[in-house]
Amino acid sequence: MLEGLNRVFARLNPLSDPKPLIDILIVALIFYWLLGVIRGTRVVQLLRGIGVLLALSILLSSVLPLDTLRWLLTNAIQPALFVAIPVLFQPELRRALESLGRTNDLFGRGFGRANRSELLETINGVSRAAQQLSQQGVGALMVLEREVGLQDYADRGVIIDARLAIPLLLNIFYPNSPLHDMAVILRGNRILAANVVLPLSEDVGGPRRYGTRHRAAKGISEQSDAIAVVVSEETGAISLMNDGRMVSYLNEARLRSMLAGLLKVSLEENEK
Ligand SMILES: Nc1ncnc2c1ncn2[C@@H]1O[C@H](COP(=O)(O)OP(=O)(O)OP(=O)(O)O)[C@@H](O)[C@H]1O
Predict the structure, then answer these.
(1) Of 9, 22, 88, 228, which cross-links 217 as Cys (Cβ 3.0–4.6 Å)?
(2) Structural domain tally of the chain?
(3) Are residues 97 and 130 in the same domain?
(4) Which range (21-25, 89-93, 125-129) has the least confidence?
(5) Whether residue 40 is found in the same domain as residue 124
């Protein structure tokens, strides 16, 4: 036992051969990244289900000498699981690959193409508009594009491509306006599109039951790195969704500081 351990430590000695240590480090980093990607998503439950199924099939086929069952497990269920994995995890795999392609994330420079003053314009505009819409009991869904392009979604709505202005945002969401339904997509300091249909999250919110506006906001934040801001028509509550997670009951100031934090923009100079 002790001899075995000594052999392991001798192999791990970076002075004699750094390869095993580098190997372990890279594998640990890959697992760390994978866990970060799946944290808080439905993948955890799916993986648990697949784990239980695999453990049961291995246990049954090794303990019980039942040939037909063993044949079914090894020739049908296990291969079917491997085919099903890419289909079941399609959004998560897509997100993982997209996050690898996001060079800005790797170098910690925050999000992309927009400069600080454009971002501030958006942060202030969205927060003020959300507060005013909330006070008036008008429902709204605003999506801030980050590194993952949302052009596909925007093209299915109505392209506006206008400089962001609070009255324009309010006008879009007022109940009888032709574009008030669905979501608005913001790119930098511009309103890219309105009336955009977003993918609905499969998470229905348990007993609380999200409505479709909140599920759409959650859906886009799960399938991309976009931030969604929702104003509930029913309660006036302002919520922010990022990475599939929701923070509710925000006011204008709190929403502003959360957006600034997520977009890595300092608000201090602005306040001087
Ligand atoms: N796929 C979608 N993408 C974007 N917006 C959507 C989508 N589906 C529904 N909506 C918006 O959600 C509105 C309906 O909201 P609903 O009341 O069902 O949800 P909710 O989350 O309870 O919102 P609220 O709290 O504002 O009532 C629709 O009028 C539409 O504007």
Answers:
(1) 228
(2) 2
(3) no
(4) 89-93
(5) no
Our mutation pick for probing the ligand 1 site, out of 176, 196, 213, 248, counting the most ligand atoms within 8 A of Cβ, is 213
Given a cut of 70, whether residue 102 has pLDDT beyond it is no
Which atom of ligand 1 lies at the shortest distance from residue 237's CA? 25
Closest Cα to residue 153, out of 205, 219, 105?
Answer: 219
> What pLDDT is recorded for position 108?
39
**CA 268 to ligand 1 center in whole angstroms:** 35
Region 42-47: mean pLDDT is 72
User: Sorting pLDDT into bands at 50, 70 and 90, what band is 213?
Assistant: very high
Q: Are residues 171 and 58 in the same domain?
A: no
Which ligand 1 atom is at minimum distance from the Cα of 139?
26
Residue type, 18: P
